Amino acid sequence: MRKFHKNLNIMSLFTAGLLAVLLVFWRTFMNIAASNILLNGIIIGTAVFGIGLCFVNIFRLLPEYKWLHAYFDGRANSGFVPKLLRPVALALRNRHAHIDSSTMTDLLDLVSIKIEDERDSVRYVTNTLIFLGLLGTFWGLILTVGGFAELLMNLDFDNANVLQNMQIGLSKPLIGMATAFTSSLLGLAGSLAVGFLGLQLQFAQNTVFQDLTDFMSKYVLQKPDTDAKSVELIEKAPVNENTYNQIADIYDAFVKANYEICDIIRLDGKHPAVVAIGTNEKLLIGTPKIDDETLHNTAKRIELCFADTLDGIKIDTKILCISGRKTPTSETVVHFASVTALQKYLDTHENVRPNTEDDWETFDAYAEYIHVAMEYLFKSNK
After folding, report:
1. Backbone angles phi, psi at 296, to 5 degrees
2. Which residues contact 116 (CB under 8 A, 6 or more apart)?
3. Which residue did the predictor score with more confidence, 359 or 3?
4. How many Å apart are CA 73 and CA 63, to the nearest integer?
């Protein structure tokens, strides 16, 4: 929030300084503007419009920024519906929705396009001010050249009042020069002011977009790389095609249920299994069909490991086995008739991912502990 307010404060101070300079040099400013009240009035009006547009855009950005941080800090449903971040809000109506990397990229592209549209409006005003300044310059030069041409054509050196006529005739070229210089000065000064405010607005927009990117990269679940996971499976646990497909399906089921994949291990030195962790000290181990003795031995080893290393903390451990059966053999070991049955089970036991920064730090520490424990228990199997 500090970065965002920093840009807003800079814009406010710059505008206040600009107004102070105009008040100090008010008479000079009015004389400059009066040299061509029509054109210079248009330039001044365009500059005021551009300055106002920059402030309107940054104040419109402020509630979007607040919504962004409120949502990802777990304080959603504040009653405000964002406009700039509306695609993200619609996609994340369900806080635990699965968003893959492709969808996340599309959402960020939509937000980026909206931001660019707002930037283009400020750029257009800046370029318009430069154009009006150049238009005044050429308009003034035309008046100057035309005035000198008319003066030379009407100049009569035999007339005794030639000097007086020359002074009168110089008024038109001088008016043209005043138009050229004052319009150029006001146009360039206006474009400089609007351009600087537009730059601060761009910094503020970049802050919002960067925070959005960081939050979504951290909190939104991304779909794993199937090819990379296939290689890892083959390297860690060479299996036949049927077993491999079951492991891949178990892996996808955990991911869709918002669990974090911790590791891929081998039980009893040969049976591949996927280790997934969730919040509130949940630990799930998914595996294809293996014998009950191996399942219970694995559950016992894990229980003894946690009892030795944890004091007063109980980890809810379940081994989910695709064995073709429907009844659990214990509270820890649960059998499923098929992968579809496992998926339905996980749909009703979906993981609630951390919301705040503190929750994520706690979860990361827990995940690291589980990873170390799995390495210790099954390192002889790798």
Report:
1. -70, -35
2. none
3. 359
4. 15
Burial class (CB in 10 A: 0-12, 13-18, 19+), 328: middle
Counting Cβ atoms within 10 Å, is residue 368 exposed (0-12), middle (13-18) or buried (19+)?
Answer: exposed
Helix axis angle, 37-72 to 26-34, nearest 10°: 120
Do strands 316-322 and 260-267 pair parallel, antiparallel, or not at all (unpaired)? unpaired
Does residue 13 carry a pLDDT above 90? yes
Other C-beta atoms lying within 10 Å of the C-beta of residue 238: 12
Please report the pLDDT score of residue 194 as a whole number.
93
In the structure, what pLDDT confidence band is assigned to residue 79 with cuts at 50, 70 and 90? Answer: low
Rounded CA-CA distance 357/365 in Å is: 13
Residue 170 DSSP class: T
Q: What is the per-residue pLDDT across 49-65, written as a single tens digit (0 to 9) for each?
A: 999 999 998 888 888 87
Tokens at 18, concatenated: 């600009």
Yes or no: say if 327 and 335 are a contact pair by the CB < 8 Å rule.
yes
Work out the pLDDT band at 125, boundaries 50, 70, 90.
very high
Neighbour-count burial of 301, counting CB atoms closer than 10 A to its CB (0-12 exposed, 13-18 middle, 19+ buried): middle
DSSP class of residue 259?
P
pLDDT at 381: 47
Contact between 220 and 99 (Cβ < 8 Å): yes
Rounded CA gap, 109 and 112, in Å?
5
- Cα separation, 183 vs 175, whole angstroms: 12
Angle at 265 between CA 264 and CA 268, to 5 degrees: 160
**Band of residue 222 on the pLDDT scale cut at 50, 70, 90:** very low
Residue 278 β-bridge partners = 282
Q: What is the DSSP letter of 160?
A: T
Q: Which residues lie below 8 Å from residue 185, measured CB to CB, with a gap of 6+?
A: 32, 133
pLDDT score for 319? 87
d(CA 148, CA 13): 45
Q: Which of 47-56, 100-109, 235-244 has the lowest mean pLDDT?
A: 235-244
Q: Residue 304's closest CA among 294, 292, 317, 291?
A: 317
* Identity of residue 83: K
Q: What are the pLDDT digits (tens) for 284-295?
A: 888 887 888 888
